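Posted in: Structural Biology > Protein-Ligand Complexes

Title: Requesting predicted complex, pyridoxal-5'-phosphate in pocket

I'd be grateful if someone could produce the 3D structure tokens for the following input. Sequence and ligand are given below.
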Amino acid sequence: EDKWDAAKIRAASAAHVGATWTPSNVLDDVPILVKGEGVFLHAADGRKFIDWTSQAVCTNLGYDVPPAVIEAVTRQLTELPHVYSGLGMVEPRARLAALLAELLPAPLTGLIFPSSGSEANEAAIRIARRFTGKHKILTQYRSYHGGSGASLAATGDFRRWYAEAGNSGFIKAINPTPLMFSWSEAGDAAETDGAHRALAALEEQILLEGPQTIAAVLLESIVGSGGTFIAPEAYMRGVRALCDKYGILYIADEVMVGFGRTGKMWGFQHYEGLVPDIVTSAKGLTAAYLPLSMVAMSAELHEFFRTRPVGWGSTYQAHPVALACAYECVKHLLKHDLVGNAARLEPVMRECTDHLVASHPSVRQGRVKGLFGCLDLQGVDGKYMQPLSGPPHAAVKPFRRALLDEGVYGLVRPPLLHSAPPLVIDEPTLRDGFARVDRALSVLDKELGF
Ligand code: PLP
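-- Reply #1 --
Done. Output follows.
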């Protein structure tokens, strides 16, 4: 086989490859990646980057694929590469379902396995609508639930504008952590007071919509791509109570935070006693080595669908090779206590984040939970650098370049800058990553005119 050089790859890409969330020409000057190693990525031109956001917050185990994963995947590919999930039974599906049921709190005992986070939410919405016989799905404005029809209509951020037409029944609440006002008269300090006001507003909204029309509330346990927002505990527990009061299912979207990102196995475990009816997850389930997601449902829902179809499916769901991969990835996560690693590194994340806030006028504030962090970027006027939905500010291009020059690869979505390296990172490497971001932010300060 001939080896393609960079010029040939770029030419074929420009001629034939399309992007999706961005115009295709954005791909013209992204790095060509050839190899991963630990938490680092190597480019064809010899550059080496730290993977600062685990790509799309998914490569949680980094690039040294555990040998047990390679073995399991190879074995499955060799012995039986595919079984359509509706026709046959295979050990990897039963084994992974049993393991996940053990890791989830009771009564979350039923599992289905789509291929992406979007599909997991698509299926969860179908489950909720079919079980309750109701139609509406209540989510938050600051949220992302996926790029397919229902999951994008459920999404609260600007991306839903692509999917709103033709998708009815998706309603949005203001988050308990708003940007332009405080729910509490006493400011953010009085968190519980604010949480109760936000809950009162939510209850009024539920009553105005009609509880008899709402199938489910679907919430990211910790808002991820919207900027690492952690809700007050009283709010999240209160939402669960409202769901119980009005016969609404509670779906926790753990696609980004599930499997340890925030220092606990599940994001909802940060809100004591909160148990969802349905949990969706993906990404960390296979560390993105292969496409697989999960929908966990309560025993009651599982029982309901033993005699009725969910009415959702795809050829690739519960793909045996991906299931074998996921099982070993989860075992690896547990064996090496990587969830604990995320929790132990939280103080370092906080210290380094606080340092960036203190030393860069372009950094307005930062939030951290486990190995999940986000900085808010601002302009000289003290306002957010740009809306998340806006065309890129003129300072974005040189800032992106500065990050790459410092060897930092990852999601830059102004006014947000995420920090979410693989869960296998160690403290010196984490500190080194922040030092690189620190230097790149000096370029942003200048570009913004500070
Ligand atoms: N839900 C959340 C919270 C996410 O962060 C994402 C992806 O970023 C999704 C759903 C969609 O997952 P996928 O991109 O695998 O379809």
